[in-house]
Amino acid sequence: MNYTIDSNVIYVEMDGQSILLNMESSQYYALDQVGTFIWNLMKDGRTLNEMEQEILLAYDITEQQVKNDLKIYIDELCRVGIIKDQN
Predict the structure, then answer these.
(1) pLDDT at 19 over 90
(2) Of 14, 28, 54, 55, which residue has the fewest beta carbons closer than 10 angstroms?
(3) Contact predicate 51/41, CB 8 Å
(4) Global pTM value
């Protein structure tokens, strides 16, 4: 699965954290260090499988937990219009 960042979204990264602003809805979202790590993978065009593998390498977490947590995270970003599913 591939995801793209909505063209109405701008972001700023500082000290490993990010702020996303949806210019269309005027809503902003704060990402912690892990959220920013995943955001950067998405920004680089990684597929869902590639993101899962990178997270497994970077964090002490089970594969099932990565799949569950990443699905929740991506579903939320899609729901609020930050990213779009390209499949």
Answers:
(1) yes
(2) 14
(3) yes
(4) 0.86
Q: With a cut of 80, say whether residue 87 has pLDDT above it.
A: no
Q: Which residue has the higher pLDDT, 2 or 60?
A: 60
Could you give the dihedral angle defined by the CA atoms of residues 66, 67, 69 and 74, in that order, rounded to the nearest 10 degrees?
A: 120
What pLDDT score does 18 carry?
Answer: 93
Beta strands per DSSP E along the chain: 3-5, 9-14, 17-22, 27-31, 83-85
Q: Give the domain 3-85 fold.
A: Outer Surface Protein A; domain 3 (3.90.930)
Do residues 82 and 9 lie in contact, with contact meaning Cβ atoms separated by under 8 Å?
A: yes
Q: Which two tokens stand for residue 31?
A: 């990402």
Q: How far is CA 24 from CA 8, 20, 42, in A?
A: 6, 12, 20
DSSP assigned state of 59: S
